[in-house]
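Adenine-specific DNA methylase structure dump, as promised
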Amino acid sequence: MPAFIETQFPIARLSAESFKERKSVSGQTLTGLGKWWGRKPLILVRAAILGMLMPASDDAKKDREVFLQILTMDDDGAWARCKPNLQKKLGRTAFDALPYAKRLAHCERPENIVGPEPEAWAEINAHLGTNANNLQELVEQLGQRTFGCKPRVGDSFCGGGSIPFEAARIGCDAYASDLNPVAGLLTWASLNLLGGGRHVQQQVMAVQSAALQEADTQVRAWGIEHNSLGERADAYLYCVEVKPEGCDYYIPLAPSWVVDEYSKIVVKWHREPRSDRLTAEVAELGDAELELYKAKLGATVVKARVVDPFNSTRSWSVEALRGPDGLRRWTNDDVVPRPGDVFQERLYCIRWVDDEGNRRYAAPDANDLAREAQVQQLLRERFAHWQSEGFIPSRAIPEGGDKTEEPIRTRGWTRWHHLFTPRQLLIHGLLMKQLMSTSTCELTAAAMLTVSRFADWNSRLSCWLSSGTQIAGGKNTFLNQALNPLFNYSTRPLSMLSSSKLTFNRGVNLSIRGNVEVADARDIQEKCDLWITDPPYADAVNYHELGDFFLAWYDKKLGRAFPQWIPDSRAELAVRGDGDDFRRSMVGIYKNLTRHMPDNGLQMVMFTHQNPAVWADLGMILWAAGLKATAAWTISTETESAGIKKGNYVQGTVCLVLRKRIGDEPGFLDEVYPLVEDEVKRQIVSMQALDEGSEPNFNDADYQLAAYAAALKVLTQYGNLDGRDVEHEVFAVRDKGKKSDFQVVIERALTIACDALIPRGLDAVWRDLSLVERYYLRSLDIESRGEHRQGMYEELARGFGVTDIRPLLKSDKANGARVHTPSGFAASGLAPLGGAAVASAPHPFASAPLRHLLFAVRETAVAGDNPESGRQYLRDTFGQGYWSQRERFVGLLEWLAALGNAADMEHWKTDSPAARILAGRLRNDHA
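structure tokens r here:
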């Protein structure tokens, strides 16, 4: 019996819920534990597990209703999640009238409520034959029915811990592993600190508070964050400065000297007699002055060149300043630049706050600089001891990495502590010393995570954002997935670090557990009923390099808390790249997972690519691992809620569902093609039947991915194709540009899907259109439904075999693509046959009948909606053929006329009426 997720999945609602969760940013359940890249939304994980456990019945509609009830994503469940004050304000009728994505603005997330209402449980149990009163009981009963035990869910690339945490929270036995110990620690913390119950959480918070208080007492005693006015610093701003050849003073570097746009605070630089250091002046400007300053004086680094602040015609290449032999490499003892280094460092601004909370910016004075010297001295007195104890980093930055090479090359920083100012090292080390005064495993783990959160928010890679709408502030190191040194950066004093401490989501009050290992996925021995993995793919994120930033702070402590873990990222074993090594690693991993699951178990692989070649590659890897695909769904996770299923998102998450391939049945390519065609059409018809009229469950990306999945479903059921060994095909060497048979079949599936998805209202004429005409109309169709991703138009072109779409596109922006209107084509792109525009190298669209019809629309619009010129153009162009095509032209014109009614088609306001009028004239035309 297939699982629910193998037959359907509520894409639109899951996309909306996933986005709401992502939009919560720091309010997400697991982000309070620490930084990791690509965590999957917990609601997606919950839905995936339940979709794999819940059997599909003969009543697909009822299955869907019950599945949504379990997730509290049905109408009643969403209303129950609506906040009480908003329930009174809105009322149920008005709430239900809102699109689902807009309702969620008023709702709690599913994870923050108890679960379905008692009435819903009665209906759920009646349909599923269970007797559960909560999610955990339901999960156990479904697991017992299928696997004979509480379901065991495993993730061999656990990363930030979303999958094992959510699995454990809803009642599964959870197993997690990752090669990277930083990921292992985050996942362990999700299960044992966040999932350890209120007692553990309160104990951790108490230790953090005590450490911050003790550190504050010491900082006050040192006097390194207060001035003589009784103010305390809440931000320090530093910058790099250089003295280029031919310049007799050091130039401070920043892409902008606007410190706080909202308060109109800037830094101005002045030359002093007999000094090669400029003097900073912090000034408050008026509106007009600020705009003038930004335009003329606001930067000393422009497009990788240093610009003289007093003579903008003089500039120097930043790369050239590093010299032909590169920069001096810092040693372990270095915490600030040496006098002869190319790049120096200076404090240029401090933001002070008084006891009433009033803030002011000021350039550092002599006392401030004395406090900076004191900080350096305090650090040096403790430096060697703190490194030996692991309170501050001592590790070297690995050379040769895509990301780790950047600080070495651009600044000469060779060790991880070089990425921190002396003030940052002193404060972080002091806190680590206080936090590590305890010895329990839970508190040691919490201490490491706490300091790593401080490190993320307080390093030389923490940029300063002078926001125009709120108080300016420093951002975290990993605002992007890089280790790029900055020209100016911010430092948080101790008083501002408490906002970066470890936090726990208020909605988690369960005591859950799971097994976490730091291990190579090829060596796992645990058996799981469900494997859900989000593998690294094609170096999208260099986890092993970026994770070392945090591992440097754990260093000597991690091994003491978890002696069975190797405190090293083991980069040489990391799965990365896209060549044979990557494929061999992936085949080995998924073969191992397949061995360690029951014959009726399932796997889900999550990834984000939509390129047919990537699908073919991954499909062959999973095929060689002994798996067969049964379904694939795309969840939009990076989109504005108002744009759910309207194409405004950059990428979604593809969830590929797989089962173990039992048997070794041979397949033959000549038989595969018709089977793929039937499967693609069946998949599309079933999806269209589930689509909701006013709230579409699927968009074109979903249909295309479903076509790929349909091809994989057919291909991966066979042990071999035309007698060729699967693994041999995975690693076969091919000439550049040559496609594997696997990829050819998958691309054929896209063509079938494109041909089967006929825009509503064009059924009668579709078969008479050429491929390029179909492409243009399908592009208009998806555009009218809000799809503006360039990639979708390119995917469509592949499906219809159109090799050049540029002449058809008005805009090819990444998220702003659209095709030309008839008037937009104008005469240059839509000229009569033989015209100059098509005489030399005509585009296939240039001679298409649809092209002439569009030209007739344009002629009608130009004539002030007088259809005679358009009608006459068609009669002159097609001669006697005009009469045989007239009815088809009328159908196309009426379809084009309706485009002006779509919300996103304002640019058709001229041509849609013209098409409607021309359609009427053609309908009444007589010989």
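The chain has a mean pLDDT of 89.
lmk if u need the other ones
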